[in-house]
Amino acid sequence: MKVVIPGGTGQVGTILDRALTADGHDVVLLTRSPKGERQVHWDGSTLGDWAKQINGSDVVINLAGRSVSCRYTAENLEAMMSSRVESARVVGEAIAEAARPPKVWLQMSTATIYAHSFDAANDEYGGLIGGGEHGVPGYWAYSVKIAQNWEVAQEQAATPYTRKVALRSAMVMSPDRSGVFDVLSWLARLGLGGPVAGGRQYVSWIHDQDFARAIRFLIERDDLAGAVNLAAPGPLPQREFMRELRSAWRMPVGLPASRWMAGVGAFAMRSDTELLLKSRRVAPGRLSDAGFTFAYPHWRTAAADLASRRRRG
Ligand SMILES: NC(=O)c1ccc[n+]([C@@H]2O[C@H](COP(=O)([O-])OP(=O)(O)OC[C@H]3O[C@@H](n4cnc5c(N)ncnc54)[C@H](OP(=O)(O)O)[C@@H]3O)[C@@H](O)[C@H]2O)c1
What we know:
Strand order of the largest sheet: 3-2-1-4-5-6-10
Helix content: 25-40%
Bound molecules: NADP nicotinamide-adenine-dinucleotide phosphate
Order of helices and strands: EHEEHEHEHEEHEEHEEHHHHH
Structural class: alpha/beta
CATH topology: Rossmann fold
Distance between the termini: 30 Å
């Protein structure tokens, strides 16, 4: 198959490029800074020569979006929103104009669309969409709005011959440098990987190999369209999540951090505390119902595998 991945040069794109290329597919990445012949220039917002790549392709997986690991200034929030909505809109336009459109368009979304929740896990059927929670910072609603507008941009695209799936993905854990697992592992190995603000908040995650397997599954399953959660069935409170991560690195100590310390730490790392404090309890309802099974349903074995692959480089 020919697979086109707009925004495929980042962490998730690297995982998919590696997996789908190993499967023997012809993978093309759309990027604002192309390097090498498999990367094609686009600007993420206007139609151009790149649209020829979409015409005649089999699968499009759009991952483009300004990183959310940044300070939530007005300028960055606007870039987080526009880079996602604009790229989804223009990918839709390219598919709509294609004489030979792809059979499926997988559009990245995020598990952050669900409400801050400690109780029942949010699945696609009855899961509570966020934005209206009490007792959380008001600006958290903006991340939910980004996710909603992102999905609407895909829904509104007039692409009748192309199946559309919105990927409500939890944090994708891979041993690659600079990914979220790498950053959390670095903190854990420094002895700083303890509970944050009590650590009751849930962490939803997915192992990189399960993420790639779920993408293959969604490409093949013609009966699946709409929003699909990509999250392991075992989300767990942050304090347990970090305990397992420390144990994978054989680090006995993990200093706890209060809410204000998390604020200082996030500021120092040019990030935002929402990424640490929002409770993301998400279940893979549709994937499981469709018969998908996870190779790494539990964080303990996932973390051990990721740490051992990281050690091996
Ligand atoms: N990583 C996760 O665990 C996770 C979980 C859920 C959802 N997501 C979402 O999945 C997507 C991919 O995640 P990732 O971790 O691979 O992100 P990433 O490493 O930051 O890569 C995102 C890619 O988007 C492109 N991009 C950035 N700003 C852009 C802009 N203004 N216009 C067009 N393209 C732009 C970049 O490509 P070029 O610079 O080459 O153009 C970059 O390679 C993101 O939208 C993210 O929010 C990620």
